[in-house]
Amino acid sequence: MGKTGALVISLDFELYWGVRDKRTLADSKKNLQGTRQVIPAILELFNKYEIHATWATVGFLFCETREELIGTLPKELPDYADPNLSPYRYVQSGALGAREQVDPYHYAPSLIRLISSCPHQYIGSHTHSHYYCLEPGQTAQTFAEDLAAFKRVARKKGYAPTSIVFPRNQFASSYLAVCKQHGFAAYRGNERSWMYEAGPGAQDTLLKRALRLADAYVNLSGHHAYKPLSASQEG
After folding, report:
1. Per-residue pLDDT tens for 62-98?
2. 3-class SS at 59?
3. Crossing angle for the helix pair 109-117 and 25-49, nearest 10 degrees?
4. Domain residues for 120?
5. Would residue 199 count as lying in a domain?
6. Inside any domain, residue 216
7. Number of CB atoms found within 10 A of residue 45's CB
8. What is the reported pTM?
9. Domains contained in the chain, number
10. Which are the contacts of 70, defined by CB distance < 8 A and separation ≥ 6?
11. Model pLDDT, residue 208
12. Are the beta carbons of 198 and 171 closer than 8 angstroms?
């Protein structure tokens, strides 16, 4: 009997939280507004061809209002060496609108409901705040606090995600144990090549980004198929 493979589709769903530390909101609005047109179109195609996908969602996007979002903040926050990396500081700066209807860049409960109503679509975690696990200043404890905040808001909205995608693919093996403690059984890993190695943003050089782009068109780093591992094998 021949062996069969599986293609896993996971999509990062983050809106402005995913680019907030790199681009201004003014420069991002056109693309973010386009997201609200693209997602329904993607769902229509997925439904037509019965494609299964997981949407790794930033926890802030579940919130209906600014007050609700602020109420989800953990007691212990990451103290990034680069303050610009902290979405929590951004939240406390007063940059958010009152609700999704007037601020479609920071909230997305309607889109989350749309995604979850489509057959074979699953809501996963992209951490609560688009948390960076390898940046100086954060700790495993503040990461655990962030995951706990995500689980609380997701549970409140009726979701129980068991998979996680680490923002900017930043993860360390020790943090996987934290994920397991919070009920996550699967994560998106990185390709086994030095150009895909996880690290803080300062190590993500222009050379590495250029090689990854080239690798998408020409096989520079080899093949990256994986055998599924059980939780006990992963540790």
Report:
1. 999 999 999 999 999 999 999 999 999 899 888 999 9
2. helix
3. 10
4. 10-189
5. no
6. no
7. 9
8. 0.87
9. 1
10. 91, 92
11. 63
12. yes
